[in-house]
Structure formats: C-alpha cells, structure tokens
C-alpha cells in the first residue's frame, strides 16, 4: 500500500515494549509551534489548498476531540467497497508524482543486502532446479512496485513476486519500465483469501519466470495490515508467516498509535467531522481517510501478538500433519520520524511500528 510522501529529516527509535496508552506522557502541540509560511516566496497563481491542520494540545487532549465513531452500517459499507476505493485511489494519483520508490528499504532492513547471494527457497520451489537464479522476494500490497523495482535494479539475479488487492495498482506495477517477466510475477490477490488460492496464483507465473515459488527468502508487508478490516489481520499475518522459507525473513512496517496522521483525524473542524466521521470504532484505532480507504494504528505488543498467534496456528496444523514445527526470531519497535515540508513550511512527528522476524526452523 502507498503512503503520502513527505520530506524526512531524522529518524529515532523509541522504547515500546508495552502498548501506548492515553495516560502515557505525551508531547504538547500548539498553533504557535506551526512554522510560519510568510517567508515562503510567491510562485504565481496556484490552485487553492486546504489549510494545514494544526495539532493543538497534548495527545490526550487531541484524542478527546471528534471521538464519536461512525455507525456500524457505514463501517460495513466501507469494508464492502474497499477494492473500489483503493482502485480510485490509484487511478487518482497515477498521473501525479505521489508515488515514490522506496530506496530506504536496505537502510531499514540491512539483511536485504543478502539478495546478492544464493537463494534459500530452492526446496520450497517444488524442489526444482532454480536455474542459477538468486533469492526470492514477495512484496505483499505492492502498490506501484515501489519496494521490488529498486531492489531488482541492484540485484538482477533475484526473483520477485508481488500482489495487491487493487487491480489498478497491479496495472501500474506491470507498466513499470523495469518489469521483466523473467524476474517478476505480478498479480491481483486478496491477502485474506485462503492460502490455497494464493498458491494457485503463484503457480501461474509466465514460463520464462522459471519454477513457481511457494516460499520466500523475504516477505515484505509495508503499510498493509493497517488497510484491512481488523477482524482479518490475524488471518493475514498467518498467511505472511506461512510464506517464509526456512531462513527467510518477514519485513514489517506500519502506522503506530499516536502517529501524527491519527491525531489529525481528531483535529478536523468539528462541523466537518460530524458530517463525515473519521473514527470507525469505539474500541480500536481504525479510521477512514477522505478517499474512504482505511487505516489502523498499531502498538508493538499488538504486532508481536499477531506474529505469535500466527506461528501457533501454523504449528497446530503442522503437528496434526506430523510435520516439524516452525520457529521465528525477531521483534518490532516504534520508530519516530521527524518530517518537514520545507515548501509549505510545516513539520510533524510520524510514528511507525517497524520490525522483522527470521524463520530459524
């Protein structure tokens, strides 16, 4: 899935071994802290922009505003129309510079440097000869291919599979000039569908791609689970974990609780919020963006629990089948990134849950 591009200045890790709560110490925001735009030189007539939403008060105070959730019937309709909403999102931004390649992935996950070596998923690829090709990568929620294509340029021997829920996103990924069917297998798929459905699509790669890959050296899920119905997050995580080959790594990044994007939902003008509520649940941090796509804000403990529950569910099935259990090692933390838009002279603090797990057996 895609994230709005911003100019990043600094990133710092934050201790987050327990869920954040509203009673935890919080920063204070005020309109006086918002950078002045008076010094920005005029550049001719431009299309009028909506005023920047300013965060005023502590986190607790901000979250206390606009905190009435939308009715359940409205939320159910959003879940039912998620595919259409994401297709509109990609269609709307396709001709704009909104989408940026993720050249930061190797900085955040140094283990990706091993893509230059031999693959470890050979046995999982039906035990077939991989014809000397390198490691196998799966990008889940590929959007426009922002994760795989920068890696393909640097590691041309690797093989990449990618899928997205939105058909328009798949079209954009396939239209990338770096698309090569000998190294890329791109398709539309719903992560919450049964694993057998996904396996059939993985087996449908073009002949030049080589033997199908059913388990991977790297599986990425970047801003993916936050776009799902929270009731489907556990099933999705189980599929992600099940796709790892022995020695493979799951790379995870998503929105963290009390991220500036969450606080902005509670800072909308009250009249506008009353007509179109952004908060979709009284018990979970689930929200609706202006384009009707969904977003959720995680704590590290939630993500840890999803991974642990996925491993246990997989091992229950493997024990029943008389197969060896799997084991993952890794973790997740909150990272904070100070963002600045110098052209518009404003800044904010973004918070992400970021981590990785390696299948050690």
From TrEMBL:
GO terms for biological process: methylation. One of its GO terms (molecular function) is S-adenosylmethionine-dependent methyltransferase activity. Keywords: Methyltransferase, Transferase. InterPro entries: METTL2/6/8-like, SAM-dependent_MTases_sf. Pfam families: Methyltransf_23. Residues 1-58 are annotated as: Disordered. Residues 13-42 have a biased composition (Low complexity). Belongs to the methyltransferase superfamily. METL family. This is S-adenosyl-L-methionine-dependent methyltransferase. It comes from Rhodotorula diobovata.
């Amino acid at each position: 899935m895609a994230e709005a591009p911003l100019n990043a200045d600094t990133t710092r890790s934050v201790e987050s071994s327990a869920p954040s709560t509203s009673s935890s110490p919080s920063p204070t925001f005020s309109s006086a802290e918002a950078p002045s735009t008076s010094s920005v030189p005029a550049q001719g007539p431009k299309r009028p922009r909506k005023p920047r939403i300013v965060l005023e008060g502590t986190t607790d105070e901000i979250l206390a505003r606009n905190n009435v959730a939308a009715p359940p019937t409205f939320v159910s309709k959003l879940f039912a129309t998620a595919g259409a909403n994401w297709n509109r999102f990609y269609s709307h931004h396709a001709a704009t510079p909104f989408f940026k390649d993720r050249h930061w992935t190797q900085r955040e996950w140094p283990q990706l440097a091993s893509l230059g070596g031999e693959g470890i998923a050979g046995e999982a690829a039906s035990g077939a000869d991989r014809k000397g090709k390198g490691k196998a990568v799966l990008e889940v929620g590929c959007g426009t291919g922002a994760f795989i294509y920068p890696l393909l340029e640097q590691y041309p021997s690797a093989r990449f599979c990618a899928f997205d829920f939105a058909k328009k996103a798949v079209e954009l990924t396939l239209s990338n000039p770096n698309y090569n069917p000998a190294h890329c297998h791109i398709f539309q798929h719903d992560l919450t569908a049964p694993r057998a459905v996904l396996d059939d699509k993985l087996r449908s790669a073009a002949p030049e791609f080589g033997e199908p890959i059913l388990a991977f050296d790297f599986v990425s899920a970047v801003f993916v689970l936050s776009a799902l119905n929270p009731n489907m997050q556990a099933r999705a995580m189980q599929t992600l974990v099940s796709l790892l080959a022995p020695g493979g790594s799951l790379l995870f990044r998503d929105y963290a609780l009390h991220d500036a994007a969450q606080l902005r939902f509670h800072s909308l003008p009250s009249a506008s919020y009353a007509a179109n509520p952004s908060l979709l649940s009284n018990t979970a941090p689930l929200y609706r963006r202006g384009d009707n796509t969904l977003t959720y804000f995680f704590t590290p403990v939630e993500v840890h629990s999803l991974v642990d529950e996925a491993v246990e569910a997989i091992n229950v099935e493997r024990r029943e089948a008389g197969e060896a259990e799997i084991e993952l090692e890794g973790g997740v933390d909150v990272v904070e990134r100070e963002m600045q838009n110098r052209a518009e002279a404003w800044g904010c603090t973004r918070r992400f849950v970021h981590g990785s797990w390696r299948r050690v057996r």
